[in-house]
Amino acid sequence: MSGRVGDLSEGQQTKLDQFKEKCADILTKPKHDDYYCLRWLRARSFDVAKAEHMLRAHMEAREKWKLDTVIEEFEDPEVLTKHFPGGFVGPDKEGSPVFIDPMGFIDAKGLLRCVKARDVLKSRMRFMEKFYDEQLPKRSEEEGRRIEGMVYVADLEKLGTRHLWKPAVDLIIQYCKLAEANYPETMKSIYIVRSPMIFPVCYKILKPFIDPETRKKIKVLGYNFKEEILKEIPAESLPEYWGGTMKDPDGNGMCPSKVCLGGEVPKSYYSQEIICPEEKNLVHSTIKYGSKLDVNLDVEFPGSIIRWVFKSDDSMQFGVFYKNANANDEPVVPLEKHNSHLVFEDDTISCDKTGVYILRFDNSHHKFSSNNIKYIVEVLEPEKLNGGVPVSP
Questions:
Q1: In the chain, count of helices (H) and strands (E)?
Q2: Beta carbons within 8 Å of 280's beta carbon, 6+ residues apart
Q3: Counting beta carbons within 10 angstroms of the beta carbon of residue 185, is it exposed (0 to 12), middle (13 to 18) or buried (19 or more)?
Q4: Measured between alpha carbons, how far is 162 from 234 in angstroms, rounded to an integer?
C-alpha cells in the first residue's frame, strides 16, 4: 500500500490513528488533516515515535524561523528574485506542479556578496510555505482532487568546479537539512538533466543530507532526457529547452517569464565582503624566506575534486603539481603569484588521474621575510551512482 489517503493497509491506518492521538496537542489547525499526518509517517516509514519526534522538531523550527508569518512579514531581497534560478511551469500528467531549477546558472559568490546566508535560507523556506499554502491548494482546486507534491527538474548545465566554493556548498547542505526536516514528502519525483562529469562529486557531498526515501525518487539523466521526462510531463507543460513545446511570447524556449535563469549578479548589488572560512577550520603555518610548503594529497578515484582556500601575510606563489611515474612534479596549475594577503584565494581542480597531487605554497620570491599562511585543502571524491539513484543514459 502507498501509505496515502485511500490506500492504507490496516496496519498503516492503526499507525495513523496512534500518531494523531500522540500529537493531538500540536495538530490544531484545519490543514493538519490525514494528508498532512501521513507525510510525516511516510517520511519515517510509519514509525510513530520517529514521526512524532520529527513533527515536534518541525513545530519548534516554525517558532524559530517565524514560519507562520514568513509569507507576509519577510520580503525576498530583490537580488534573489532576479538572480536565484528556478520557476514553476505547467503541471505533470497527474496535475502536480513542475518546478524547473537551472541551478548550473547560479552565481553563488555573487549572491553571497549581496545577502546573508540566513536570508537565502529564509527566502527558500518562504518559498516552501507558499508552495504548501498557495500553490498546492490552487492545483488541487483546479484538478478537483488533492495534489500533494511537485515534480522537480534540476538542470546541471554549466555546473562546474566553481560551484564547489565552500561557503556555497555549506549553504546548500544547510538548506537540504532544513527542507528534509520540515517539508517531507514534497518531491513526487526528481529529474537531474544534463548531468556533467562533476555531478558524482556533488552528489557524494549532498547524499548524507538527503533522506533515503527522497533518494529513491531521483533519476539522473544526461543530455538525452527528453523521452524519459515526457513520460511524466506533457510537452505543453515544459519549456522547449527542457524537452517540451512551451515558449514565451517572444519565442524564447527557456521561458524566462516563468523560470528565472539566474546569471551573473551585477556588482551594483554587492553590499558585503566575500565569506571567509571559520578560523577554527584553518591550518596555520609559517614558511621561511626563500622556502616553500608542499601539501601532498592522495587521490584514489579519477574524477575527484581538489579544493583549496588560503590567505597569507604577504603575497604568495601557489601551484598544483602531479607526481608522475618518473617521480617528477608535473604542473597542473602553474606556479603563480597571488595577492593572498589581500583576499582569501579559493579554487578547485578536477583530477583525471589517480596518484599524488602536490599543493605548493612558495615563498621563494621573498628573500628576507617569512610568510604566515592559513589554509584548508581537501579531496572531494565522486559518488558511485548506484543503490538508490537510478542512472539513465
A1: 12, 13
A2: none
A3: buried
A4: 34
pTM: 0.84
CA distance 360 to 294: 5
Give CA–CA dist 41/339, Å, rounded: 54
DSSP label at 132?
A: I
| Cell numbers for 19 | 500518531
Segment 53-86, tens digit of pLDDT? 999 999 999 999 999 999 999 999 999 999 999 9
Distance CA 115, CA 167 (A): 13
pLDDT at 385: 54
Tell me the C-alpha distance between 299 and 380, whole Å: 9
The residues pairing with 338 across neighbouring beta strands, listed in sequence order, are 316
| pLDDT per residue as tens digits for the range 335-392 | 999 989 888 888 899 999 999 999 999 999 888 899 999 999 999 999 865 544 444 4
Q: Distance between CA atoms of 130 and 144, rounded to whole angstroms?
A: 20
What pLDDT digit, counting tens, does each position of 274-299 carry?
Answer: 777 788 889 999 999 999 999 999 99
What's the rounded Cα separation, in Å, for the pair 188 and 152?
A: 8
What's the rounded Cα separation, in Å, for the pair 122 and 388?
Answer: 30
CA-to-CA dists, residue 41 to 6, 48, 52, 133, 136, angstroms: 15, 7, 8, 20, 20
Residue 45: phi and psi, rounded to 5, are: 50, 35
User: Which run of H or of E encompasses 203?
Assistant: helix 199-206
Which of 329, 347, 346, 342 shows the shortest CA–CA distance to 292?
329
